[in-house]
Structures are given as structure tokens and as C-alpha cells.
Amino acid sequence: MSQLPELNRLSATEIVAGLEQGRFTAEAVVRACLERIDARDGEVGAWVALNAEAALAQARERDRSGTRGPLHGVPIGVKDVIDTAELPTQMGSPLYAGWQPPFDASCVALARMAGAIVLGKTTTAEFAGVAPPATRNPLDLGRTPGGSSSGSGAAVGDWMVPVAYGTQTGGSTLRPASFCGVIGFKPTFGSYNPVGVKPAAESFDTLGLIARTLDDIELFHDVLSGDAPGPGRRLERAPRIGVLRTHLWDTAQPETMAAIEDAAARLAQAGATVEELTAPAGFDQLTSHRVTINAYERARSLAGEWHTRREALSARMQHICENGFAIGRADYIAALRAIENFRLRMDAYLDGVDAVLTPAVPGEAPLGIDYAGDPRFQELWTLLHAPTIALPTHQGPSGLPVGIQLVAPRYGEARLFAVARWVEQGLRK
Amino acid sequence: MSQLPELNRLSATEIVAGLEQGRFTAEAVVRACLERIDARDGEVGAWVALNAEAALAQARERDRSGTRGPLHGVPIGVKDVIDTAELPTQMGSPLYAGWQPPFDASCVALARMAGAIVLGKTTTAEFAGVAPPATRNPLDLGRTPGGSSSGSGAAVGDWMVPVAYGTQTGGSTLRPASFCGVIGFKPTFGSYNPVGVKPAAESFDTLGLIARTLDDIELFHDVLSGDAPGPGRRLERAPRIGVLRTHLWDTAQPETMAAIEDAAARLAQAGATVEELTAPAGFDQLTSHRVTINAYERARSLAGEWHTRREALSARMQHICENGFAIGRADYIAALRAIENFRLRMDAYLDGVDAVLTPAVPGEAPLGIDYAGDPRFQELWTLLHAPTIALPTHQGPSGLPVGIQLVAPRYGEARLFAVARWVEQGLRK
Question: What's the CATH number where B132 sits?
Fold first, then answer.
């Protein structure tokens, strides 16, 4: 196996194909990932718990087994708000130190049923919320990897594992993906079964994927959706792309503005129909409705912990809960209704183009690790329940990645993947 | 206290008021409920686990305490798919025998924060699904209490506890309430925080309440919604009531048909405007869309258990899971979209009257305890996310209760409570 020194750099799709062809073993892949983690994680800190021996044993089992699922032998990372029967699930909170759930979360079980191997648990902000873990951006250890799926972004970005699960209530999957130079994908709300994922705000919580290739995103999407994986979706013609700067445009740093302008220009050159979109009236109020809903739901989601152990929550989480408990049902429902109405209008709006091109993040990953970055560009689409993907197409002034974001109407995953593939190739030229 | 021999028959509202007035102690109330359980539960079998000593200790604490929440000293029953930190949560499945979650579910913590006392866990069908527990209807031990919230219906119906939590994915709260002669209420989907409640099918799962009085339903609704409890909602004028027989009318037994006809006639006599409604086109297809969504989601909700321990699921649950895993994403999304479109149309339809009057159940509780009854009259409104209440207003040929059902548009709880109060009084005349 020594002629294949970088098995940890393979994508999930390449691992499945290589195992099928007998080019290497699942054990060698898992070992390569564990070696990378061993070499790097002292600095990066992407993992809370590793399943090293069990993962190697499962890899050897896969190598011996005649049955091959679509994720046969693929090592994955699982954000530590997602239940795993073999490893503790600690939620980024001392309240769950060493806690071991009785069964795997649905998304973990579905991946294992398809042949995947859980390599370990990746770090998370406290309850996928505000207090970030001590994880560092693998591309610049002085910066945040983003959050709250900090460890999943860092682990995939640092070649420790090809795919990791994230969750996104605001911007917790796409932002770490953008900061760590990989792909972040959040499907339509409700696409992946949420059982075994600690809820944060149930109107927005969405399981997502972080990976290095579109092939891998599509592969896992199909497995988690209950579809047989097929070849990557492709467009039959050049896409119509709508550029939406949003009311947050002024919060973007120059590198994000440049990324969007550059992408729009080069995609037009490549043959896309690119048009400037105006946000529908009321779009700029979505952010404040989200604050109401998020606080109301977050407080009640932590009612069990709050009732008996509130002193063990971070000061910021306590503050969020206090604010949330003070919101009454009338204000909550008014915000829910406003967003629902908007969501339905956005189906038609988004359907006017093949995909919307919009900033993924304000810019490069911020310096320091105490602040995981601004979620507002990502959370607009989370609250609208639209499928959205961040592609690491550009760089900022420090040479660090700056993602762009593509959005499709609800349930428009197939179209989104096809456009993303076209965009990726269009920007490579 | 001996001059108050039936403290177990008090409503939650009466308990709170009596404690405030110093007429009895919380300890005496809890003791009376425990004595009732001790006397009757050998036959009824409503409880899986009792918290007797801790509940008495908490009652004494409430009696000593200066702070009074809106549920001060009220004993409650909690369906055993809902997490409790003090008692095991066993899901009606051997897979969770003795399992102890680390924290209370949100709804349990919110009730305890308001002063309630968890008396114990009530029986449930396996994962709130198909295999009913060995619970008997307290009004006729030869019959089912309904399901899947079997123990909650039986415990409230048998004066063991004033209020108990149920969950409803199809008809699991309103049906046992109707069969046991008490009130069942399911709010608008999403109204009560679902954290700590084992999911069955996430598009439909709704926490609900079983109680003996409308006052108690409103009291708990306010607490779980984050509102300060107020006086019961009342109408300022006689309501407009629409009678909807639905495409399932032919499945109703004579006692249900008679109950609806009688209620319609007497409410008109009492001054209501009563009109016959025709279901909108497509309404009769909701049932089959529900089957698709329910099976798809149920299978994936149990993926963790299925992956490693499927042999410990009941044969019927295994069958449901197998069917569910065979459903692909396209069929699932088509059903989701069809129901979503219908749901939005029904908002306006339901808004044309103050409430819809419709059968709650096909008739009296069926004989035997192996079949918990037909959920279809209840599940129509669960899948539409509409708030709905079953009132035990009528009786069948065996002298057993037959409920009627009132439905309001989504988020129309205040109106629904006011109409229900008017209807309850109108039918008393």
C-alpha cells in the first residue's frame, strides 16, 4: 500500500470505487485518516472522540464482506450533537460529559447501513449554538474554522476524513465549510431524518453535509434520502443564474464582493444567463423574525437542562434562554406566520432562475477562535428552508478561501447539484 | 383531610385554587392519586412506572414553598415516549427497558418549572405506534382504552391524575380520550416544544393533552406555550359551526352518526349557526398521502434501532419499517407537497366557520385490547396541522362514551377553546 501514500485525501466516491477495484483496503483508508489525525489534531483540535480501534475493526470487516453498500468503507466524522451508540455524544457542554446514547442517530445508522464507518465525533459549539470549541482553522491556526460545526469543517478541510455531518440552524454548516475551503450543503428543511440530533430551534434545524467534492455531497444526499445513488446530476444547457446581493451586502468584506462579481462575470462568459435580482419586499425583515423564533425555540429546547442545571450553561446561552423564555406565543406565531408566507412566495421567486448566486460568508475566516463568524448570509436560506450549497471557489487577501453560495427552491436539490457542477467547471476555466 | 375524600377527582385548576386557599395540601392530593392508582391499576394497567416517594417529597416541598407557579402542586402523568430524568423512559419497547434519559423533555421541564409534579409514566404502544400495551379501558375492562397514549387516556379517565401528556402522529391523543370519556386536545403542529419526545413521523408528531375539563386544557396550553394563564376563553356571540362528515362517514358506527346529528341539532337550538360543509376536492386523498409520509418517516426514525436490533421490534413494526425504507424520496416529496398545498387551502376553508364539527372516533371503544381502534377520523386533522379537540359529549349503545371533534384553523387555539366551551354548555341544556 505504500505506493498510495495519501489515502486520506481520497473522496468518498474515490474510496468506494477504489475498494470495488481492489486498489486498496478499507483498513488502509481508515489507518491513513487516523494517521493524519494523529499528526495534525494536536494543533487543529477537530475531534472530541475517536473510534480508532472499532473503526479499524469495522474496516477489516468491510474488507472481508461480500455485501457492498453505496458508502462501503467510507470513514465519516459526526458532529458531537448527533447521537452515536459507539461513542459519547457530549454536545459541546459539560452537562453531557461522557453521555452515551443508546442508539445511533438516524443519519448515522443510515450511513452505517450503507457501509460507512464512524471515525469519531467532531467538535461543536455548545449545543450547536454560540460558545465555540477550541478548534482551529487548519488553513491558518490563528483563525476560527467557523461554527457551530467547527470540527466537521476543520476535519474535512484538513484531509482527516472525506465527509462529515454538520447541522445548520443559522449558518453552522455552510460557514465552516467556506472558512475551511470545502463544500457545505444544507438540503431542504426536513430532508434528512432528525432523530438523534439534539435540537436547537426546531423550525430551522437542518442536518447538512461537509465534503470536498460535489460527487460526495450527492452520494450522501442520495443515501440519506433513500434514493439509489446515481451519476452526478448535470445540466443539459447553460443555467440561468440570478445574483442576489441581499440587504446584507454592506456587511460583506471586499473579498466576498469581489468573489460574487467575479463569479457572475465568469459564469456569463462561460455561457450562463446571469441577471441581477432584487429581493422581494420584506426580505430584509427575515433576520429579525428569525431572532424571535430562534430565541423562543432555543430556550424551550433547553428547558430540561435549564430547569435543573442552568448554571452549567455558558453565560451567553443563559442569556439567550432568558430572552427566549420572555417571548410569548403571540409574538412567536406572528414571526412563524411571516416567515411561512415569505417561504411560499420564495418558491416562485427562486423558480424564476435555475439558482441564486449570493454571498456565503462576509469574507475570509476571522482572526482568533473566540468568534466563529457572522451567520447572517447563511441563515436567510436556512429559515426559508431552501437547499443551499457553498462552493470554495475564491480566495481573500490572506490567501484563505471565500465561498460563494448557490440556492434553489425547496426540494430543488437535483437542480442545485446540476447547477453547482456547471458553476464549478465554469469557474475553473 | 378526611372530609375531602376525593382529592383525586379534582381538576388541575381546582387543585391550584384549593392549594392557594389552603383547603388541602399538595401532599394530600398526590396521596389521593396514588391511593386511587393503588386500588385500581392492577386491573387498568395505565402506569409503567410510578414516582411515588419522590412525588410525595416534591408535594411536601410545594406545600412549604412560598413561590407558586401556575401548576403549583398539580400531579401529572407522562406518556412513556417522553423523557423524564427521575424515571425510566421505555417507549413501550424492550429496546429501552430501564433506559434513563439524562434530562426531562421540554414539556416535562416546563410543567415542573410551573409547579407540577410528575406522578409517573403512562403506558404507550411500541414507540407510539401499532403494538398496544396491556392497558384496559377503565369504563369497561373488556375493551381497549385506545392508543397509542393508552395509559394517559385510562389514567385521566379513571381519576388517577387530572392531566396527562399524550402524543398524536395519527390519532393517539384524541382517540384514547374519546374512548375513556375525557377531553383530548392536539394543538397546531409545532406548538409545544418536541425536545425529549421520541419521534414517530416528524411531519405529524404533535404533543397533546388529556384532561377532564376545558379549564385544565387551557391552563396547560398556556404554560406550554409560554403565556400567562388567564380566564377561560369565551365567545361573545353564538358560533358558526360547520358540520363535516368527511369521506369516512360510512366507517362511522350508528352511535357516532347519532352523536354528530344530535350535536348539530342541539347546538342549532342553542343558537349556533350550523351549516353542512362539503369537503374540498382532494380531501379524500389525504389518507393515502399520510400513509406514504408516515411509513417513510417512521422507518427512518427507527433507523438506529433497526440497524442493530430489528429483531426486538414487533413484527408489525418491522413490517412498517420495511415498507417505509422501500419508499424513495420522489414519492415522499410528492406526498409532502400535496399535503402542504392542502393544508394552506384548509386555513381559508376552516376560517369560514368558527369551528368544524366532525366525528372524533368511529364509535365506542372496541372490545378487546389487541386493537386500539381506527385513527382515521383523528389523523385527518393531525396531518393538516390544525388544532383539534375531542369532547366526551355522547354515549353509545353500551353506555360508553362517544366523543365529538371540533377543529379550528392552524393557530386558532383561542377560538377553538371558546367554541368548545360554548358547545359543552350548549349540549348540557
Answer: 3.90.1300.10
